[in-house]
Design goal:
Blueprint: H1 2-25, E1 31-34, H2 40-59, E2 67-70, E3 73-76, H3 78-95, E4 99-102
Helix pairs in contact: 2-3
């Protein structure tokens, strides 16, 4: 009976998980780096440079600084490396004079109703 219940419940749990993940993805506002006088190409180039430098720096972190037991050996946690890269990228971009701003979604207005006189 246990296998039957698991077989019937698994697709529903999977769908619920995917639905929650999709809803969570919609909750984050769009952001972009802005700097007075910088065009989109310069911003994209600086972001690539900063991401590359952050990735190099996060990979140079010694394994023993943040060990996590992963089976038979110690490894640097992927979540720590992702956090480090994100933090270092933000630091680099701010040092280049950029500011991370939230992009407001376009406002949609309902059609105006005619006013009767």
């Amino acid at each position: 009976m246990g296998k039957v219940v698991r077989f019937l419940l698994m697709p529903r749990l999977l769908m619920l998980g995917l639905l929650l993940l999709a809803a969570a993805g919609c909750a984050f506002p769009d952001t972009r780096w802005v700097k007075p006088g910088a065009d989109d190409k310069a911003t994209a180039d600086d972001l690539v440079i900063c991401r590359h430098a952050a990735q190099q720096e996060s990979f140079s972190t010694p394994i023993f600084v943040s060990p996590v037991w992963a089976g038979r050996h110690w490894t640097h946690a992927e979540a720590d490396r992702f956090y480090d890269e994100s933090r270092l990228t933000r630091f680099c971009m701010r040092n280049k004079g950029y500011e991370l701003v939230t992009v407001a979604p376009p406002q949609t207005q309902a059609p105006a109703t005619p006013v009767e006189k």
